[in-house]
Amino acid sequence: MVKILVAFLTRFIPRTMLQRVAHIGLQSISWFYFGNKLEDPIDGKTYRRILPYGRVRTRHNALAPFSLSLERHRALWIYMKESTNFFTHEAKMLHMAPEYCFIKRLRALENLEYITGDLDSPWADHHFDVHQIPFDDSSFDIIMANHLMEHVDDDRAVLREFYRVLKPGGWGILQVPIDWTNPSTEEDRSITDPAELERLYWQRDHLRLYGFEDYPARLRQAGFSVEIVDMKKQLGNQLYDRYALGGEQWIFVVRK
Fold it and tell me: Which CATH code is given to the segment(s) 72-255?
């Protein structure tokens, strides 16, 4: 029942509406899932299990009901905490399409000048089209955009914009859904039927599905150097399962 409800809500309820109310409903039932088997590293809460998530490809133990983190968010938090100076080094950060599980925590960091942007999210400080980022060249030490590139009209132009606003020596994390069975990105802009987009690219609002070789190639074509971090290799199976990181969690770290 929960799986069906989550799939329905994420498929048919507008994103901006979900962003306004989802945390209230999920946090109100989070007590039902408390236990000691799984741990959300973002807030330290532990669960016996967590919520499923997904529209076409439902994933079990994916959504932590209190922080609203998904597998990719928990993997990113661990990477930034254990492999970077993100939480201690003074930096100016641009976070596009900011996620609920991160916003308050990152805004509270005294070392971080934290700026958020989105086209229409109620959580964002600035609203703009990411194809034309309204900041000067070399404005940011850090950029982050997770599961954004599959939604934009011209992903190569957006990547060039990210490169432009990143300072030399800066770094970022640009995550996307990856089809780990296909090295090539699948994209056909003549397809407009929502059901067909969902079948091919996993969501009705996705315009492409990235391949595991092509996506890092696109990052490099924009000018970035790219490091791909295998979180299962870094953490080991026990912690990987403890943090409910699910399938493949590879982090694409870009640098200028």
Answer: 3.40.50.150
